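Hi C.,

You asked whether I'd gotten around to modeling the 386-residue construct. I have! Everything is below, sequence then structure, no commentary in between.
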Amino acid sequence: MSTRLHALHAAGQSLWLDYIDRAMLSNGDLSRRIREDALTGQTSNPTIFEKALAEGAAYDAQLATLDGARSDREAFELVATTDVRDACDAFRTVYDSTDTIDGYVSLEVSPDLARDTAGTVAEARRLWQIVDRPNLMIKVPGTPEGADAIRQLIADGINVNVTLLFSIDAHARVIEAFIAGLEDRAAAGKPVARIASVASFFISRVDSAIDKQLTAMAAANPAAAETLNALQGRAAIANAKLAYRLFTASFSSARWAALAAQGAQVQRPLWASTSTKNPAYRDVIYVEELIGTNTVNTLPPATLEAFRDHGDVRASVTEQVADADRILSALESQGVSLQSVTDTLLAEGLASFEHSFVTLLSGLNRKRAALASVASSTGAPAVASL
């Protein structure tokens, strides 16, 4: 067992794996990680599935059974929901043993629905029914339209992972949507217990974007270079610490206490994009500096391995919060607009996931055509319908 990963879990942070593929579901690797690495959940997104489907032939047998008249989007939905359902089953013991606090697996609605409230709600409801597991989480982007969808889905009793959060304002909006959705549900006489949500706050991309600005500003103004360079690598963690402060305040209110008395669970902050993009920074910095109770960190495999090897554990997310305010104020005073940066990052994140989805569907189309060609040349029987 990994002492460091178990210590991280004991400090109040849940470890979720930011990766999924069929091989780990079938060869025992995921089950081993759950046993040995204190792993308590798993997340997926279009980019992850794009990589999984592009590598090897693990999905070929299932794709070969798909009626050729079915669309590539339907083909993807088949393989994605199968993987996520199997992963939910692998984590079911965690879900039960933690009394529904942990053990979740996330599946994202189509990226092209990010600005479509009604479309997001309809697809989320459909995916919820297809996977048919209580420890599924539906991922919904944290756009204004997404927030409206989140309120409806929580009122329906559907678990939600809010993704692509970069700004405190957006975080506040989805906390409000979550609480309001529970209130809607309670007002309808329905139970609010056993409904889970996480707010996925993206970390390293903030530093990458702001560091790039600071480097350019320092080159243009050497007299201010020392001040500007001292702010590099500090914005993302500061931003996340203020998000945690907002979380703590929001779920300490009298309004929340009324729901908690009915068994409602808090919407935990989830730290996403926690791999280190700048090799000059410690490779586990976005784990070590954001540890605290009621948090989740979704770790890419390489970051998880790095923390297992040399990560340090301390209750860090509540440290030097006043400094976090000062860091962000200093950036603003130097002309770096955090709001502008986070708006751009959200737009880029949505575009990136949509690009991955288009690439994924294109790859599936080629793979299905190749499988059909092999079947035709070998005289294989007609494939079954989905």
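If it helps when you're writing up: The first strand starts at residue 13 and ends at 17.

Thanks,
B.
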